[in-house]
């Protein structure tokens, strides 16, 4: 492999505005945009059959703006998580958490 040091970005085959539901053969992935303190283009993935919510870095600070934590956006995200029927939450850089453990942690940040 010859690496020239250039990054070539290509458009994805699938694009969506608000949400996208994928049937993965007996299991569904609901993919949707949401507000978060981490970035303006946050996407979450919910697997209803397994009651798992993938959050990526959505609960983290905004590293593009000196690690600023927008508590209003975090509150909005926390409320969204509360409304989703999930048992487990998967963050990018942590072990899986129960929904209640994640909510307890997020609410401690909001105090």
Folded structure, characterized:
This protein has 111 residues and is α+β, with helices and mostly antiparallel strands. The chain contains two helices and six strands. A six-stranded mixed beta sheet has the order 1-2-3-4-5-6.
Mean pLDDT: 93
What proportion strand?
Answer: 15-25%
Output the radius of gyration: 16 Å
Largest sheet: 6 strands, mixed
**What form results from the Cα inertia axes?**
globular
Task: Give the N-to-C terminal Cα separation.
Answer: 51 Å
- Which structural class fits the helix and strand makeup? alpha+beta
Give, in order, the helices and strands. EEEEHEEH
Q: How much helix is in the residues?
A: 10-25%
| Residue runs with pLDDT of under 50 for 5 or more positions | none
Name some characteristics of this structure:
single chain; 6-stranded mixed β-sheet; alpha+beta; 111 residues; globular
């Amino acid at each position: 492999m010859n690496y020239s040091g250039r990054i070539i970005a290509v458009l994805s085959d699938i694009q969506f505005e608000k949400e996208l539901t994928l049937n993965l053969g007996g299991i569904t992935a609901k993919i949707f945009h949401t507000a978060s303190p981490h970035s303006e283009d946050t996407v979450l993935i919910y697997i209803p059959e397994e009651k798992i919510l993938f959050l990526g870095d959505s609960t983290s600070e905004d590293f593009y703006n000196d690690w600023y934590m927008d508590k209003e956006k975090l509150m909005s995200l926390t409320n969204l998580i509360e409304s989703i029927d999930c048992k487990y939450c998967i963050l990018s850089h942590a072990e899986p958490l129960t929904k209640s453990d994640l909510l307890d942690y997020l609410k401690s940040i909001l105090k």
